[in-house]
Amino acid sequence: MKRFKLLLLTLAITISTVIYAEKTEKIYDLNSLSAEIELLLRDANHSLEEGSFVTVFFSIAEDNSIQYVGVTAQELEVSDLLQKKLQGQKLDGTKWREGMIYELTISGKSQVACASR
After folding, report:
1. Do residues 55 and 114 lie in contact, with contact meaning Cβ atoms separated by under 8 Å?
2. Which of 17, 40, 47, 113 is 20 to 30 Å from 76 by CA-CA measure?
3. Which residues lie across from 27 on neighbouring strands?
4. How far, in Å, CA of 89 to CA of 64, rounded?
5. What element of type H or E holds 76?
6. In sequence order, what are the residues at sequence separation of 6 or more whose Cβ sits closer than 8 angstroms to the Cβ of residue 113?
């Protein structure tokens, strides 16, 4: 019985660790979206140099997913990468408004300027 309890405890700890460590697929606000974009660029071995920037324009669909993505960047490869990765990305929270066009600019100094239109 003691071994069974130890096995259950180990299983519970393992499952809770996996659930906690699982990456969330929903984005709650512009700041978390900018962090997600920086992570995408870092994973693809692209970094924003000081003085460079990326601007992302997007709108929200009825199901809170990114419906349209337009990216302006100095490198065409970065622009294409972000358009492919962000298209259809699920967003969460009550801050998003369907049909509104959002603009997010990320500069190479890791400063974030956010605006919506």
Report:
1. no
2. 113
3. 91
4. 9
5. helix 76-86
6. 105, 107
Question: How many residues belong to the chain?
Answer: 117
| Per-residue confidence in pLDDT tens, the chain, 117 aa | 888 777 777 877 777 666 655 444 555 667 777 777 878 888 778 777 777 888 889 898 888 888 888 888 888 888 888 888 888 888 877 778 888 888 888 887 644 444 444
Please give the structure tokens belonging to residue 62: 């009825």
**Which residue bears the tokens 């992302």?**
56
* Environment class of 82 (CB within 10 Å of its CB; exposed 0-12, middle 13-18, buried 19+): buried
Q: How many CB atoms lie within 10 A of CB 9?
A: 10
Signed CA dihedral, 80, 85, 88, 92: sign only: negative
The predicted model scores a pTM of 0.62
Give me the amino acid identity at 79: S
CA-to-CA distance for 87 and 58, rounded, in angstroms?
A: 9
Q: Where are the beta strands (DSSP E) in 17-97?
A: 53-60, 66-73
